[in-house]
Design goal:
With 498 residues, the chain is of the alpha/beta class. Helix content is 33%, strand content 21%. The protein is built from 13 helices and 21 strands. The chain has helices spanning 17-23, 61-69, 156-167, 176-191, 204-217, 235-247, 257-264, 270-298, 312-317, 353-362, 367-370, 390-409, 463-476; strands at residues 28-30, 56-59, 73-75, 81-89, 102-109, 112-115, 121-126, 133-136, 141-144, 195-200, 221-227, 250-255, 303-307, 343-345, 384-385, 421-424, 429-433, 436-445, 448-449, 457-458, 480-485. The strands form five sheets. It has a seven-stranded mixed sheet, covered by helices on one side. Strands 12-11-10-13-14 form a five-stranded parallel sheet, with helices on both faces. The chain binds xanthosine-5'-monophosphate. Xanthosine-5'-monophosphate binds next to loops. The active site is at 60 (nucleophile), 147, 149. It catalyses: XMP + L-glutamine + ATP + H2O = GMP + L-glutamate + AMP + diphosphate + 2 H(+). Pathway: Purine metabolism; GMP biosynthesis; GMP from XMP (L-Gln route): step 1/1. Homodimer. Residues 174-372 form the GMPS ATP-PPase domain.
Length: 498
């Protein structure tokens, strides 16, 4: 729906008709789900929802629940349809307008609608399903048995757009520009003339969140960038120079590399390293925040708000929590002292990652930041297997920069979710470089393709590209005499090595 430029939100099926009405929607979609309407405890459809006078589209289970609610018949036929399925459109109507009579769509269901509710027109059928789509233009109620929202339904997006634009008459006027205008208004209303701080990590979410707040309240915002010395080549400079030039944000950088390296000295265990980096990060941010609070106090002011780059998937996964929280719940910043309580400003709470990137571009942020691959909070600290030292970080940064440059030059950025480059500092192997024997470290390439990092597969990077990367690293990075490729999917391997 958002791809059709219509703003949408996800609510649980337990929401009441009154709660829905209170949000004043222009359309409702009932999603699919794994249940059978005959199962005990199956998600029930609150009948009031169909009487709100708001156009409704039911998908798969939502379609069946609608059929049952409206007096149609849902049958346990024992005939499952799963996967790409031939569908015959018998009568297009507004919902299936422009969709060929014979086409395929993605199905995944056991029960079927055997009879449409009275007053409904049957629009399509399949081998196993006499009623694969129905409509009542009069009541503005529609349903399809297949899944229009998946890539495997070639005309799926057309169904969604037909429902939104034709059946429900909703204009497609939601876009990056309208989001920026709306968020700027909201942020101004929330913050008023108070002061606000934001922790920048160098990643896209905090960068875009801070840029929006800057657009809304200008110098009331101060950003804190904790440079832990574990970022990749040029990333700290990109934040301090390119990002600041693009946004005009007031930035305080804390150069904490020594502090982190001292704390990490002698530590090889991955969990220990993660804990130390997390702890030092909190302490460093806490010190910087406290200094800013004192500065504000001296000027007779206070800092009331903290910006956080929470995205919509986090909100949905955590059950849609409320908009204010003690800073302790911040997963990147962690527990600040009790007396440092801030109200949260979360301008990306309703957005997905690709939308955040689009907004970042619209706000004029540097492409290197907007297009950045996911990078873990503990940074290169968990990409050195062994103790983290300044020399090893420099070596890894050089190798990583070569990999990134070559993958980008080969046009592989869209295909690769991320490519950790790992230094096996505890491993040495014999090599021959120049005319002499070397005893150096291996570098591991871990290119992965993924939708959401929960699962991943190793990316089949062309051999020529791998050869170039290997040649360049072994020639240009002293101390490395071997480049190896990780060909493990996730599971069983995680994406990062530590
Ligand atoms: P794994 O290694 O668990 O990684 O397969 C999944 C995704 O999460 C990233 N990652 C992290 N991100 N803090 C973060 O912000 C962390 O401590 C952390 N550890 C892993 C990883 O880069 C991958 O995208």
């Amino acid at each position: 729906m958002r791809e059709a430029n219509v703003y949408s939100e996800i609510v649980p099926h337990t929401v009441t008709a009154e709660q829905i009405a209170a949000r004043n929607p222009v359309g409702i979609v009932l999603s699919g789900g794994p249940s059978s309407v005959y199962e005990e405890g199956a998600p029930a459809l609150n009948p009031g929802i169909l009487d709100l006078g708001v156009p409704v589209l039911g998908i798969c289970y939502g379609f069946q629940a609608m059929a049952q609610q409206l007096g149609g018949e849902v049958a346990h036929t024992g005939r499952r349809e799963y996967g790409s399925t031939a569908v015959t459109v018998t009568s297009g109507g507004s919902l299936l307008d422009g969709i060929p009579a014979d086409q395929t769509a993605w199905m995944s269901h056991g029960d079927s609608v055997a009879r449409a509710p009275e007053g409904f027109e049957v629009l399509a059928s399949s081998d196993a399903t006499p009623v694969a789509a129905f409509a009542s233009d009069e009541r503005k109620l529609y349903g399809v048995q297949w899944h229009p929202e998946v890539k495997h339904s070639p005309y799926g997006q057309r169904v969604i757009e037909n429902f939104l634009h034709r059946a429900a008459g909703i204009p497609g006027d939601w876009n990056s520009g309208s989001v920026i205008a709306e968020q700027v208004e909201r942020i101004r209303a929330q913050i008023g003339d108070a002061r606000v701080i934001c922790g920048l990590s160098g990643g896209v979410d905090s960068a875009v969140a801070a840029a929006l707040v800057q657009r809304a309240v200008g110098d009331q915002l101060t950003c804190v960038f904790v440079d832990h010395g574990l970022l990749r080549k040029d990333e700290a400079r990109q934040v301090q120079e390119d990002y600041v030039a693009a946004t005009g944000v007031r930035l305080v950088t804390v150069d904490a590399a020594d502090r982190f390296l001292d704390a990490l000295a002698g530590v090889s265990d991955p969990e220990q390293k993660r804990k130390i980096i997390g702890r030092e990060f909190i302490r460093t941010f806490e010190d910087a925040a406290e200094a800013l609070v004192l500065e504000a106090k001296a000027e007779g002011d206070s800092i009331r708000f903290l910006v956080q780059g929470t995205l919509y998937p986090d909100v949905v996964e955590s059950g849609g929590g409320t908009g204010t929280a003690n800073i302790k719940s911040h997963h990147n910043v962690g527990g600040l002292p009790e007396d440092l309580k801030f109200e949260l400003v979360e301008p990306l709470r309703t957005l997905f990652k690709d939308e955040v990137r689009a907004i970042g571009r619209e706000l004029g942020l540097p492409e290197v930041i907007v297009a950045r691959q996911p990078f873990p909070g503990p940074g290169l600290g968990i990409r050195i297997v062994g103790e983290v030292t300044r020399e090893r970080l420099d070596l890894l940064r050089d190798a990583d920069a070569i990999v990134r440059a070559e993958l980008t030059a080969a046009g592989l950025d869209a295909e690769i979710w991320q490519c950790p480059v790992v230094l096996l500092a505890d491993v040495r192997s014999v090599g021959v470089q120049g005319d002499g024997r070397t005893y150096g470290h291996p570098i591991v390439l871990r290119p992965v393709s993924s939708e959401d990092a929960m699962t991943a597969d190793w990316t089949r990077v062309p051999y020529e590209v791998l050869a170039r990367v290997s040649n360049r690293i072994t020639n240009e990075v002293a101390g490395v005499n071997r480049v190896v490729l990780d060909v493990t999917s996730k599971p069983p391997g995680t994406i990062e090595w530590e």
